[in-house]
Amino acid sequence: MLEIQLIQPEKSPGYTNNSRTGCYVPLGLLSIATYTKQQLPDTNIEVLDGELITNKEIIEQLKPNAVIGIDTKTPNYASAVEIARVAKEMGSKVVFGGVYASAIPEKIDLYRQDIVNHVVVGFGERPFVDIIKGRDDRVIHNSEPNFDELPIPDRSFIDFERYIQNFQQNHKTWDYRGTNIFTHMGCKYKCLFCSRSGPKGVRYKTPQMVWQEVRTLVEHHGIEYLVDFSDTITQDMTAFRSLVDSKPDDLNPIFHIFSTAEGINHESIELFKRLNVKHVFVGAETGDYRLASKISKGASFSPERTLEAITFLSDAQIGITPSFVLGLPDESEDSLDTTYNFAKRIKEISDFEEIFCSALIPFPGSRAFDILMEKIGNPETDLFDPEELKQEWIKLVCNTDYETINVYVDKILDLGEYAITIRKNS
Ligand code: B12
């Protein structure tokens, strides 16, 4: 029987864990596994997750003459290459997919011909099955999520209970059995630092599909808290309303959703209440008006609009996870200070527990990366280290330095109990 292994590598050496580590299932890989098993039942499929085990353990578990699919992100790409090298030596076919591979497929194809057979850009389910059936082009594009033909991701490919326990352990005050889902893909905004690969425009799953998945999670797995990791749920209010309107009367788990400040108003608050939203992840980004106008996060985006949105949420007893990005173009010590004070003000309004803050990483696929490449010339490599990208960026576009930015990242993270950042230990 054909052996298939789908792998999320461990973060590359030096990159630290955070309060989210090991809490959320690798949904993209589960979706590929479920679809592949449905289309090709005579295969043996395993999902290995570097959020739970080390790269060394993943490598020890590699099977010979298999098909190995690897989910690449900038902070795990060095680990992905390490796994691919060993898999190739063991006679396997190696397929790279995920956001990083989708951003620089030609480079990967050029520099990794010896260890990578295929690079998939975009959604992986159909291309992965096609590859197993013999499709042989090296770079395969699939920009549409094909939601209508995809089965509910089957959580039995992984030890689901372990993720749920990690979620509880890492978020002691939330005290719920929590997990992640997806309701839609794609985003109408074009934020400077965003590198999510998605369809052109926004695609929502049908409400029936979403509620069927929620029912399975609630009734079969006792899930009480759902983190919808989609882009921004309020960006298409018609689709959002139809999701809420079709909510079954007998299901009422708590929702944790993502929304831009622009999408938070009386209408969306009413929908949040009906959906049982208790938590909204809001990209506050900066407290500086001038810097806010450089992000391209909607025409009305400003610190004032963010405060207004957070006040609305607080008045409705809905908690938040604010997110900050330091190192925007022309960032200075003054603007960092303004952002720190802004974060403290948000803390006063909404006593948040979870917080995200990082220095801007110009991830391949983002506009920031293109700006950086224009300045430094496009290096002849497919291996971009996030911390190095960050440092180059700060040197070239900010009016302050890397160390000062990191001091402020830490000060802002200290405002929350559950802190999320992306950083390499020095
Ligand atoms: C949920 C999430 C997580 C969860 C779960 C991870 C997971 N694998 O699902 C957690 C919290 C654990 C996590 C961790 C991290 N994440 Co994360 N995460 C996300 C988020 C919000 C959603 C991902 C998701 O579930 N998508 C839905 C599923 C269905 O789609 P998908 O995973 O993209 O997979 C599809 C395609 O990409 C493709 N595909 C993916 N893998 C493969 C593999 C093969 C072989 C093929 C053919 C196709 C393919 O097919 C899939 C199905 O259609 C995205 C942002 C976003 N909206 O995409 C960030 C995102 C992917 N994460 C990001 C980062 C940086 C991280 C961390 C490094 C953060 C950290 N410091 O801990 C770690 C890395 C973990 C690791 N070991 O690699 C960045 C990546 C940036 C970049 N360009 O590299 C993103 C884009 C967010 C951002 N900052 O912009 N993440």
Q: Which key terms come to mind for this protein?
A:
binds cobalamin, Rossmann fold, 2 domains, alpha/beta, six-stranded parallel sheet, TIM Barrel, 426 residues, 15 strands, seven-stranded parallel sheet
Please, could you describe this protein's structure?
The chain is α/β, with parallel strands linked by helices and 426 residues long. Helices cover 39% and strands 18% of the residues. A seven-stranded parallel sheet has the order 7-10-11-12-13-14-15. A six-stranded parallel sheet has the order 2-1-3-4-5-6, with helices on both faces. Strands 8-9 form a two-stranded antiparallel ribbon. Helix 1 (27-39) packs across helix 6 (125-132), helix 9 (237-245) runs parallel beside helix 10 (266-275) and helix 13 packs parallel to helix 16. The chain has two domains: 2-144, 3-Layer(aba) Sandwich (Rossmann fold), CATH 3.40.50; 171-420, Alpha-Beta Barrel (TIM Barrel). Bound molecules: cobalamin (B12). Cobalamin is lined by residues 8-11, 18, 20, 24, 26-29, 31-32, 50-51, 69-71, 73-76, 95, 97-100, 120, 123-125, 127-128, 180, 182, 194-196, 229, 231, 363, 365, 422.
